[in-house]
């Protein structure tokens, strides 16, 4: 059956929890469920928009599934949904968001919708939001002293600063272009005419 609804893969080794997530999401999304890492890799293809991935699964862990997804170049967003409290090792991981269990239906829907929105952004903006999510998470979970002594956290802050400058330059250049200025003038005229 062909559908235009976003597709979500749930990779969770606890069947009751996987089935609960599926029942919470199937009204809004096309949902596939995998109960271990190998099954997740077999289930994922170009049709998957978002993966909700448990880090701790027997056999192939969520971390390895994530690495494989990125190595294959699959164009999907990945949220880790796990009981593992985040640590500085997450800085180098290729996920887009991170939720710590237990997770409500509203949280699942919110993260999926946010990731679907992010997938429309260019790669630089996607990277910025993924890194910003990691920073927010670590800011909540780690003390200031822990953050100050972490090399990974320092690299994260440096990368965010570089991306901020690049994004500011991109927006500035976009606003300087004649086409963008004409578009803004047209929008202003249209909004005034509508009043």
Describe the SSE topology:
Layout: E1 7-11, H1 15-25, E2 30-34, H2 37-43, E3 50-53, H3 62-71, E4 77-82, E5 97-100, H4 105-118, H5 123-141, H6 144-149, H7 151-176, H8 178-194
Parallel strand pairs: 1-2, 1-3, 3-4, 4-5
Helix pairs in contact: 2-3, 5-7
List keywords for this structure.
five-stranded parallel beta sheet; 8 helices; 195 residues; single chain; 5 strands; alpha/beta
Describe the structure.
There is one protein chain. This protein has 195 residues and is an alpha/beta fold. The chain has helices at 15-25, 37-43, 62-71, 105-118, 123-141, 144-149, 151-176, 178-194; strands at 7-11, 30-34, 50-53, 77-82, 97-100. Strand 1 (7-11), helix 1 (15-25) and strand 2 form a beta-alpha-beta unit. Helix 2 (37-43) runs parallel beside helix 3 (62-71) and helix 5 (123-141) packs antiparallel against helix 7. It is globular.
Give the N-to-C terminal Cα separation. 45 Å
Helix content: 55-70%
Structural classification: alpha/beta
Q: What is the succession of H and E elements?
A: EHEHEHEEHHHHH
How are the strands of the largest sheet arranged? 2-1-3-4-5
Précis, in short:
This protein has 195 residues and is of the alpha/beta class. It has 8 helices and 5 strands; from the N terminus they run βαβαβαββααααα.
């Amino acid at each position: 059956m062909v559908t235009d609804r976003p597709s979500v893969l749930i990779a969770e080794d606890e069947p009751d929890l996987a089935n609960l997530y599926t029942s919470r999401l199937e009204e809004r999304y096309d949902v596939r469920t995998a109960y271990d890492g190998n099954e997740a890799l077999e289930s994922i293809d170009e049709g998957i928009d978002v993966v909700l991935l448990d880090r701790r699964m027997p056999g192939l862990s969520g971390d390895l599934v994530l690495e494989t997804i990125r190595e294959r170049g699959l164009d999907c967003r990945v949220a880790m949904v796990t009981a593992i409290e985040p640590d500085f090792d997450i800085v180098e991981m290729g996920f887009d968001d991170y939720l710590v269990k237990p997770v409500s239906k509203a949280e699942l829907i919110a993260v999926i919708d946010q990731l679907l929105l992010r997938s429309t952004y260019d790669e630089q903006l996607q990277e910025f939001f993924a890194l910003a999510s990691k920073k927010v998470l670590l800011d909540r979970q780690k003390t200031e002293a822990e953050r100050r002594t972490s090399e990974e956290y320092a690299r994260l802050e440096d990368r965010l600063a570089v991306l901020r400058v690049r994004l500011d330059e991109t927006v500035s250049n976009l606003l300087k272009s004649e086409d963008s200025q004409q578009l803004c003038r047209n929008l202003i005229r249209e909004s005034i005419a509508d009043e």
